Amino acid sequence: MLRVGLTGGIGAGKSTVAARLAEHGAVLIDADRIAREVVEPGTEGLAELVAEFGAEILAADGSLDRAALAARAFSDDGARQRLNAIVHPRVGARTAELMARAAADAIVVHDIPLLVEGGLAPSYHLVLIVDADEDVRVKRLVESRGMPEQDARNRIAAQASTAQRRAVADVWLDNSGTRDVVLAQVDALWADRLVPFEANLRLRKPRPPRSPVVRPYDDTWPVQAERALARVRLAAGETALRADHIGSTAVPGLAAKDVLDLQLTVSTLDDADAVAGALSAAGFVRAEGHWYDHPQAGGDGVWDKRFHFGADPGRPVNLHVRSAEGPAWRLALLFRDWLRDNPGEVAAYTEVKRRLAKAHADDGSVEGYTEEKQAWVDAGFTRAEQWARRTGWTP
Ligand SMILES: CC(C)(COP(=O)(O)OP(=O)(O)OC[C@H]1O[C@@H](n2cnc3c(N)ncnc32)[C@H](O)[C@@H]1O)[C@@H](O)C(=O)NCCC(=O)NCCS
Ligand SMILES: Nc1ncnc2c1ncn2[C@@H]1O[C@H](COP(=O)(O)OP(=O)(O)OP(=O)(O)O)[C@@H](O)[C@H]1O
Predict the structure, then answer these.
(1) Alpha carbon distance 362, 383 (integer Å)
(2) Residue 88 domain boundaries
(3) 280 is a domain residue
């Protein structure tokens, strides 16, 4: 099952996007709808609200007077927190039930306004944010739903900021334009990313090798890596001693292939095997076979690791699961930190990569590129070790 978290500020267009995804076949779980169900007449949820806020939040027919409660909740932070404390656990329990019921090959879209506020991003395979300028959103809510402008603005003030949403967004859909524009983006997202992502995840399919196109440094790589690392940490739980962004994309200014390298540190490779299933289910598919870090690795196993591929076709990730006992674990961190501290080496390494990528793009070989690059890296390790001694570096 692929879990997609869909969020955005009030009036941004979540329901519009969700409806289109459902037309394509997604299973929708609508948090606002569940939040209504758990406070319907006769529910414990409604009784608790009345105990907390008084009978004045009830309409004449005994149902919740939503406008009355909204007036309290969106003008007073304390009241909103008490409301959330009553409603959110019930919504969470019902959501878990519905998720558990979805088919193994489902693409589940969870339409949830407070995804960012609840710190829930790492529990989804992909987070999709719909956004529109605040004034556009307010205008739409006032015109199409008759919501008083002040009510819309109070709710916006009670929600996450655009910057907080940006930090967790794997996909950002700008819905400031016409509906057709955003719907076309949703159609492409479904076909090009969500459908193959789900298949890769379910079939545990490794990503096919790609030709080594080296790109200029992208300053969004660290935040993209942080999102993936948050998922890795959540999936690995206490087995994770630490998880780091390593490799070329972790070095500011360094040209690199657009593949994020991550290192999950575990005590032993038995632990790596124990979390393989959880990592695979979280979107980092375990690669079968024997993986080791050194071309001349002997039979002693010290260079052995476990290897996982990110299943998201839109965000290539390599996850190296290593024991802190092995030498490669330390070298990965050393190499990164040495380069970060030595711009001259970054420039030299960039040059080597560009030259090799160009040479091997012509003959299409991935292996040749990797092998030749390794020669520069091996020589770099000697200089990095000298640097570590000089500076007192520790991992
Ligand atoms: C206060 C209530 C009764 C007002 O009902 P109303 O029919 O006017 O709004 P509705 O529930 O349709 O929500 C509309 C939008 O308001 C925003 N919103 C609702 N609750 C909250 C909240 N607690 N914090 C911030 N924004 C909220 C969301 O963007 C949501 O999509 C209702 O919103 C509620 O019970 N909220 C608490 C539950 C909740 O947090 N729901 C959000 C998803 S779990
Ligand atoms: N691109 C668009 N152009 C014009 N109107 C739009 C567009 N997208 C959505 N709308 C309208 O704006 C309003 C808000 O959109 P929608 O209900 O999809 O937002 P939402 O994020 O689900 O809102 P809520 O936070 O209240 O659940 C709706 O009336 C919708 O029909």
Answers:
(1) 31
(2) 2-202
(3) yes
On whether residue 208 sits in a domain, the answer given is no
Residue 296's pLDDT band (cuts 50, 70, 90) = low
3-state secondary structure of 183: helix
Interval 260-268 mean pLDDT = 97
Q: What is the tens place of the pLDDT at every residue in 123-174? A: 999 999 999 999 999 999 999 989 999 999 999 999 999 999 999 999 999 9
State pTM to two decimals.
Answer: 0.93
Rg (CA), the chain: 25
**pLDDT number for residue 326:** 85
Q: What is the pLDDT of residues 222-247, one digit of tens each?
A: 999 999 999 999 999 999 999 999 99
Is 116 within the bounds of a domain?
Answer: yes
* Residue 293 near residue 328, CB atoms below 8 Å: yes
In this structure, which residue's CA is closest to atom 16 in ligand 2?
13
Task: List ligand 1's pocket residues with C-beta within 6 A.
Answer: 10, 31-32, 35, 66, 69-70, 73, 80, 83-84, 87, 91, 113-114, 155, 158-159
Number of folded domains that form the chain: 2
Q: Is the CB of 113 under 6 A from ligand 2?
A: yes
Give the Cα separation of 174 and 8 in Å (integer).
10
Side-chain half-sphere CA neighbours of 44 within 13 A: 4
Pocket test for ligand 2, best of 15, 30, 115, 137 (most atoms within 8 A of CB): 15
Q: How far is the CA of 16 from the centre of ligand 2 (A)?
A: 6
Contact (Cβ atoms closer than 8 angstroms) between residue 241 and residue 266 = yes
Instruction: Give the Cα separation of 162 and 144 in Å (integer).
Output: 23
> Count of CB atoms within 10 A of residue 123's CB?
17
> In this predicted model, what pLDDT tens digit does every residue of 133-143 receive, in sequence order?
999 999 999 99
**What's residue 163's pLDDT?**
94
Distances (CA, A) of 142 to 31, 148, 192: 22, 6, 35
How many whole angstroms from 206 Cα to the centroid of ligand 1? 41
What ligand 2 atom has the least distance to the C-alpha of 10? 25
> How far is the C-alpha of 249 from the C-alpha of 246, rounded, in Å?
7
Q: Name the domain boundary from 158, 176, 202.
A: 202
Q: What is the pLDDT of residue 264?
A: 98
